[in-house]
From TrEMBL:
InterPro entries: DNA_helicase_UvrD-like_C, DNA_helicase_UvrD/REP, P-loop_NTPase, PDDEXK-like_dom_sf, PDDEXK_AddAB-type, RecB, Restrct_endonuc-II-like, UvrD-like_ATP-bd. This is RecBCD enzyme subunit RecB. It comes from Neisseria meningitidis alpha153. Keywords: ATP-binding, DNA damage, DNA repair, DNA-binding, Exonuclease, Helicase, Hydrolase, Isomerase, Magnesium, Metal-binding, Nuclease, Nucleotide-binding. Binds 1 Mg(2+) ion per subunit. Transmembrane segments: none annotated. A helicase/nuclease that prepares dsDNA breaks (DSB) for recombinational DNA repair. Binds to DSBs and unwinds DNA via a highly rapid and processive ATP-dependent bidirectional helicase activity. Unwinds dsDNA until it encounters a Chi (crossover hotspot instigator) sequence from the 3' direction. Cuts ssDNA a few nucleotides 3' to the Chi site. The properties and activities of the enzyme are changed at Chi. The Chi-altered holoenzyme produces a long 3'-ssDNA overhang and facilitates RecA-binding to the ssDNA for homologous DNA recombination and repair. ATP binds at A23, S24, A25, G26, T27, G28, K29, T30.
Amino acid sequence: MSAPIQAFDPLTVPIAGTNLIEASAGTGKTYGIAALFTRLIVLEQKNVERVLVVTFTKAATAELKTRLRARLDDVLQVLESKEIAKLGDDTLSDGIAAYCAEHHKGDTFLPALLKQALQKEGRTRLIVRLKAAIGQFDNAAIYTIHGFCQRILRDYAFLCQAPFDVELTEEDGDRLLVPAQDFWRERVSNDPVLAALAFKRKAVPQTVLAQIRAYLSRPYLNFRRPQTDLPQARDAALASWQNICGNLAELKETFWRIHPLLNGNSYRKNSFAELFDALEQKALSPDLPFLEAKLHERLLKLASDKLEAGLKKGKTPDAAVFAELQKLADFRRDLDALEEAEEATIIRLQLDLIGYLNRSLAEMKKSRRERGFDDLLLDVHTALTDNPHAETLARAVAENWETALIDEFQDTDPLQYEIFQKIFIAQNRPLFLVGDPKQAIYSFRGADIYAYLQAAEDARHRYTLATNYRSHAALIGSIGALFRLKERPFVLENIGYSEVGAARAESRLSPKRPAVQVRWLHENDNEKANKDVLRRRAADYCADEIAHALNEAAGGRLNFKGCPLQSGDIAVLVRTHNEAVMVSAALKKRQVQSVLLSRESVFASPEAAALSALIGFWLEPRRAGTLRFVLTSSIFGYNAQQLHDFNQNESEILHWAESARTALDNWNQYGIFAAMQQFSQTHGIETRLLSRNNGRSLTNYFQLLELLAAEDAQNRNPAALHKWLRDQISLAGNNGGDNRAIRLESDEDLVKIVTMHASKGLQYPLVYCPFAWDAQDTGPSDWQILHQSANRTELLAKAQLSEDEQKQYADEEMAERLRLLYVALTRAEEQLNIYAAYSSDTADNPLAYLIEGLPQDSRETVRRAYACEKDGIAMLKRNWQRVADNAPAGTDFAFTEDAPPPAAYRGNAGQTAEFAANSIPERRFRFVRHTSFTALSRHTQTPDGGEEDACPSLDAAETSVPAMPSETPTASDGISIHDFPKGTQAGLCLHEILEDFKFGQAAAGQETLIADKLKKYGFEEIWLPAVAEMAEACRKTPLTGAYCLSDIPPECRCPEMGFTLHTEDFGLKRLRDWFARDDIRLPEVCRAAAETLDFHTVNGFLNGFIDMVCQDPDGNICVIDYKSNHLGADASAYTQQAMDEAVAHHHYYLQALIYAVAAARYFKLRGQPPAAVSVRYLFLRGLDGKGGGVWRWDIDAAALEQIK
C-alpha cells in the first residue's frame, strides 16, 4: 500500500528514507529542488560534493546548476548585507525577515531557513561555510543520468570491472550494423527457406535493425518466442495448391454447376469468375500463388458450411459437391497457416537478432574503451546486479553521496530505477524522487511510467507541491474542471489529477479574456468535412485569431502586464512537423512572423533528404530520376512548369551531369565541404534557401554540411559517407546528440510554433492548440512494450497481441495522449485556446474521452458511445456545450461556434522600410576552375551584340515533345527512324541503346536489348524495327577509310570515355584565330559561329564524356559522338550543308575540338601519339550505312598541340 500524500515543505521534510515528490505543472518543481538543496548545504551542513542531483538532459542540468548556485548566492547576499551585518544576535532573526520582505518579496523559505540555521551556528561561521560551498560549486555533483553513470564507472572502475578512461561517444549505427550483417550471413543467407522469406518480406539487416534497435540493451524486457514450423506449413500449403492445380477444371465446373442454387448476392457471378480466372492464371506456375485479399475471402466462401448457408430457400445441399469445393477453402486455411508461420518466423528472427546484438555489444565492450550513452547505464546496472563486487560497489557509491535528489523522475525506466534502488534505497540513504506522472510523455525514448508507479508504491513518504505559480486561478480551475470530469482522467488507475491552488488570483491580460476558449470548427451541424479540410480551417482560424490579437495590441486595446501584447508572448502547440508548417504558412499569409521551436534531429528535415539525393546524383549522374527529385526538393524548389521545361532540354540535363562529375572530382580532391560550397555557388543554392522559410532551410543546410564534413574527416569515401547520411536519416528519431538537434534562430519577438513534446517545461502568456481535436490514431507499431503483472514487462510484436492485450495497448496509448494533452494545456499563463471538431476517430481523441459520458466511464465505454451515435458532430457539440454551461465556480470557460473574422497583422504598417539587395552586375571576366563544353557553349552573343539567355533553348528539332500515345503508329510497316519521337527522352534512349550495343553483332540479334531500352524510356515496341535499322546503319557506316564500327574489336573501343583536361589561357581570341586557319579545315559557317562565343578565359579544368573513342586496325584514332537532332523528314535532309549548320548552331565544333584534344592526350600519354584525330558526329536519324548522316572533321595532331 502506498504512503499517504502530504504537502511538501522543503524546510520540514525529513532527510531520511525514500521520498516521492509529485510536482504538477507550474508548481515550482525547480524552485523546490533548489530550496531542498539549499537546506542540505545551509541547515544540514552537507558538502556540495556529497549531495547528488540527477536530471535527464544536459539543458536541465545546466539550468539546475545555475538555479542552485543562485540560491546559495541569495543566502550569502542576505548574510553579508550591510543591514544585517550591523544587527546583534537578539535582533538578527527579525532583521532578516524584514530584509527578505523588502528584497525577496514573497519568499518565505529564505528567512525561515536562516532563522533555523543561525540557531545552530553563528553568522560568521555560516558565511565562511557558504563561501567555501560556493567556491567548490564547480565540483558539485549535478549530472545527467548518463553523466552520473559515467562518474561511477570512472571512479569505481575496479569494482565495476570496467576499463579505465572510458571514452564516451555518440551512438553509431555502423557499430550495430556490422554484427547485424554477421547475424544475417550466419542465420539467413545460408538457409534457403529463411532467405526466401526475407526476400518476400523485403527484410534486410538495415530495415530489421531499424525496427528493433530501440529495444536493445534493455535487460528488463521479456520475450514471448512464438513456436512454429515454417517448412511444415509451407509443405502443407504447397501440397494443397498442387491438389487444386490438378483438379482445377473439375472444381470450376462443379462450382458453376451448383451456382444457380446459391444466393446471387453472396455468390456474384462476376466475382467468382474473377476468382477462377486468377486461379487458372496462377496454376501456370508451380509456386504458391499470391492472391489479393478479396480473392482470399471468396475462397473462404467455398467452405461447406458457408455454401450451405448460402443456398437459396428450398434448395437441398449436395454434401459430396460441397466436400469437393471444401478443398478450395482448405487451401485458403493452409495459406493462412503459412502466413502465420511466416510471421512467427520473422518475429523469432528479430528476437534472435536482439539477443545476438546484445551479446555482440557485450563482447565489443570487453575489447573497446568506447561507450555509447546507453552502454553507460547498462554497465552500471550490470555492475550492481551481476558482479561479485556489487554489494561493495553499492556501499562505496552510497558513502560518497550522502543524499540524492532525482529530477524528472517520471521519465525513468526499470534499469535506472534499479540502479537508484541498489545504491540508495538498499543502503538506506536519503533519496528524493521528483517528478509528475501526468507529464510522462517520453515512452518513445524508453521512459516507462510503470517504473515510476512502482517507485511510488515503494516510497516511504509521498509529497505534492500544492501551489501553481504559472497560471491565474480561473485558468487553473478551468483546466482542472476538464480533467475532473473523469474518475480516471489519465486512464491508468494510479494516476489522478492533483488539485492545486493558485498563487495569483487575476489574469494579467487587459482587458480580460476567457481563461479557456473552445472554438468550434464546423461551419454547420450537417457538415461532413474531412480531416484535411478541418486541419486547414484550424490553422486559418488560429492565424486569424492571432493576427486579430496582435492588431488589438498594436492599437493599445490588448495589454499584458501593462504593456501591449507582443508576438513573442504567443505560442501555438502542435504535434507534428506538418501541422507546424500549416500554421506557419497561415500566419505568413497574415503577415505574422513565426519560428518553429523543435528538438527534432536535423536529419529528419527536408534538407537532409534533399542533400542525400543530391549526393546520390553525384555518385550516379546518369540517374535522371534522382536529379528530378533533387530539383523539386527543398533545395531547388522547381515547380511543375520548370520541371517540364527541364525535361525537354537535353543540353541542360547533360550540363547537370557534368556538374555532378565535377563535384565528385572536387570531393575526392578537397573533401565534401569544398565540393558542396563550389556546387552551391555555381547553382545558387544559398540564395534559393535564404528566400524561403525564414532562413530555416539555410540553417539546416549548413548544419548538415558541418556534420558531413566531420564524418568526411574520418576518411570515409563518397559512397560510404552517402550510406552514413542515409542511415542517419532513417534513424533520425533516435539521434539525440546536441549537434544533431535543429538549430534555432532568434525567437524572442516571433510567434512560437512548438511541438507539444518540446513545450514541456516552458510557459507562454497565450497558448493556442489548433489540432487538439485530432486523434491522429496510427494503431500499434510493429513492436509494443506492455506491462504485465508481477513487475513483468514484455516486448511483443503486433501480431502477437491477444484481444485483451490490444485493449491494453489502446488504453496505454490513450493514457499517454492524455498526459501529452495535459502538458499542452498547462503551458498557458493567461489564456488557453482550444479548437474542437468531429472526425472519424474522435472516439480515440483524449479531449473527447474527458468530456463524454459519466465520470466512471472507461475509454472502451466512450468508444462504444461514439460507435452507437449516428450524429457524431451533434454529440461532440452537445458535450462541449454541457462542459461550458456546467462549468463550476472559479472557472472561466467559453465555447463559441462563430468563425473568427479574417485578419491580417497591421502592427508594423508604415513603420518598417522595405529593403532589397542591390543587383550585382555580372563580371565579364572571372576565374573558372572547372567547366565543360556545355557551360562554355551556353554563353554566346546575338548578332546585335546582346547576350543570349545563359540557358538557351535547343532548336525546334530537339525540343519537340515525345509523341503522345495517339501519335504512336499502330503498325510498324512504313515507319522509319525519322518518325521516331523527338525530345530529351528520345535522345537519352538512343544514346543508351548505342552505349550497350555490341557493334560486332547484327542488330537483328540484339532486339531484346533494344526493346528493353525502349520500354525503359516509355516507347512502344512498335518502334523496334526502325531503331534496329538505325543501329545496324550505325555499325555499318564507314568512319576512317573503309573501316566501320563493326570492323573494330571491342578492346579497341572505349564507350563513354570520361576526361578532365588541364587548360592554360583557354581564351576566345586565341581560339577564334585557331579556328580561322586554313589548315584547320573548319567549315565557314562554323568559323562564323565561333565569333559569337562569349565565355571567359579558362585557367583550370575542362570536364566531359565522349560517346566513343576507338582505334581502327590501321591505328587511326576516331572520336565518335551520337547526335539525335531532327533535321528533316527523311535522309535527304541530312546534307553536308545541313549538318554544318547544325554543328555551327549548337557549337558542336567546339565540343569536337575539346574531345579531339582529350583523345590525342590520352593516346600520347600511353606512348601512341596519333598523327591526326578523326572526329565523326553521327546524326542518327540520317545514317544510311554508306556514309550519309556523318559530319567529318580530321585534325592534325600538330595543330591540336597548340591548344593549351
